[in-house]
Amino acid sequence: MELNNRVVLITGGKRIGQTVARELAARGADVAVSYRRSRAEAEATAADVRQAGRKAAVIAADVRKPSDCASLIEAVVTQLGRLDVLINMASIYQETPFDAMSEDDWQENIDVNLRSVFLCAKAAVPHMRRQGGGRIINFADWVAKSGRPAYQGYVAYYTAKAGVIALTEALALELAGDQILVNAIAPGPILAPPDMSAEERAEVAAATPLGRWGGAMEIAKAVRTLVESEFITGETIRVDGGRHVR
Q1: Element (H, E) at 86
Q2: Is residue 2 part of a domain?
Q3: What's the pLDDT tens digit per position in 116-146?
Q4: Most C-beta atoms within 10 A of its C-beta, which of 65, 72, 81, 175?
Q5: Position 36 in a domain
Q6: Which CATH number do you get for residue 239?
Q7: pTM of the model
């Protein structure tokens, strides 16, 4: 798919999402960004898109809710005219030991990390069908793609991200006849959390075969590849510096 004059929706438009938005706008796409709490970051992303000469939209949505997901997709189409690419990037990542995990903790992970992917795709697909095709790109995790829960304290997160991979494969099969290609990206050490110490960052880099963090642009490159490809679907691509082979 050529990106020029296409419309992209990114759920979660800060940090990595901001870099992805800039990269796609530089290639001619108009970009909508949704947010739940981080309005300032979403507005900054939109400003970057407009600076590239493209249209941008900033839309508040709680992607845990079916009504919000449906309204989000309709708002994108209303404001930007169409929807060609859905990037399900909204995610939470919280360490919660199993013994301390409540039903609410479990459900929050499932709702944000997995259910929202289904809800947004469900709302977006009819628009893509009318246009003769589209792209859906979901976000999993390198650990889930590797098929082993490498870290304790992430039962709900791991389960949800493994579900994203399964959902990606199932949707790819369901939607292939509509020329809607569905893939996922499984990031590894891309950007360090703001509260991570220098020592912790160095430990992660040392555990990565390439010996460094990847940087947000590596995710943007992977997104661009999956958008532009006409023959990749049902795939989950690890962007992890080789973490899965160690």
Answers
A1: strand 85-88
A2: no
A3: 999 999 999 999 999 999 999 999 999 999 9
A4: 72
A5: yes
A6: 3.40.50.720
A7: 0.97
